[in-house]
Amino acid sequence: MLRRLYDWTISLAARKTAEIWLAVIAFIESSIFLVPADVLFLPMALARPERAYRLALVATAASVLGGIAGYFLGYFAYETVAQPILNFYGKLAAFESLRACTDENTIALLLVTSGLAHLPPIKVVTILAGVAHASFFIFVASCILARGARFFALAWALKKYGEPIRTFIEKRLSLIATIAAAALIGLYFMFKYFSASGFGTTC
Fold first, then answer.
1. How buried is 77 (Cβ within 10 angstroms: 0-12 exposed, 13-18 middle, 19+ buried)?
2. pLDDT means per 10 residues in the chain (203 residues)?
3. Rounded to an integer, what distance in angstroms lies between the CA atom of residue 181 and that of residue 113?
4. What's the DSSP call for residue 80?
5. What is the pLDDT of residue 8?
6. What is the pLDDT of residue 110?
7. Residue 165: CB partners within 8 Å, gap ≥ 6?
8. Contacts of residue 83, Cβ cutoff 8 Å, sequence gap at least 6
9. What are phi and psi of 90, to 5 degrees?
10. Which of 25, 26, 65, 79 is buried most deeply by CB count within 10 Å?
11. Rounded to an integer, what distance in angstroms lies between the CA atom of residue 73 and that of residue 83?
């Protein structure tokens, strides 16, 4: 199923309505969809480099709005809507694990790492933020920071280097970003665990 979703998402880049589809995919990725918007963003920005920053703005705005939708799903309809979605994608166990040892500061960190490197998946964190009733202002600010940084950095790289950078972005950049995000999360939880102030949790 994932491969079919991936191929279908890529096929949208060739349509006249590709920009609208980019907004749609970026929106639903942040709350219910499995395939990241990068899959659609990359070929579109390569085909029209003069529109790279405009596409980054569209993707960022739609992704933040989708994150807000995920937040409200977690806040108001976790058991009836969000839980079945997470279970369908096989993310429920990961979600419950995060939920058991998460405070507002952890959520802000996870929003940044998921926005930059999809670690953990953005939909998991947006729903978690709603379930935990995290500060809505901090939530939105973190989403804008992380998603904007990712899409605009990709736009800059594609606009400057074009097709030669695509392989690096699709393969190595994601790996590097994932390792960096994992290290950031690990350091944060180590700090919480060894902190003598009692800040946060130790799970």
1. middle
2. 60 80 89 77 84 93 92 88 79 75 74 72 83 88 87 87 69 58 56 47 46
3. 5
4. I
5. 64
6. 78
7. 157, 158
8. 92
9. 75, 25
10. 26
11. 9
CA-based nearest residue to 113, from 21, 32, 186, 190: 186
Could you give the CA distance from residue 105 to residue 111 in angstroms, rounded to a whole number? 10
**Total number of residues shown for the chain:** 203
Q: How far apart are the C-alpha atoms of 107 and 194, rounded to whole Å?
A: 19
Both tokens assigned to 156: 């800059």
| Residues 6 or more apart whose Cβ sits within 8 Å of residue 168 | none
Q: Tell how far CA 52 is from the center of its chain.
A: 19
In terms of phi and psi (left: phi > 0; alpha: psi -120 to 50; beta: otherwise), the region of 33 is beta
Residue 14's Cβ-count burial label (10 Å; 0-12, 13-18, 19+) is exposed
Residue whose tokens read 């349509």? 15
Which residues are CB-neighbours of 133 under 8 A, at least 6 positions away? 75
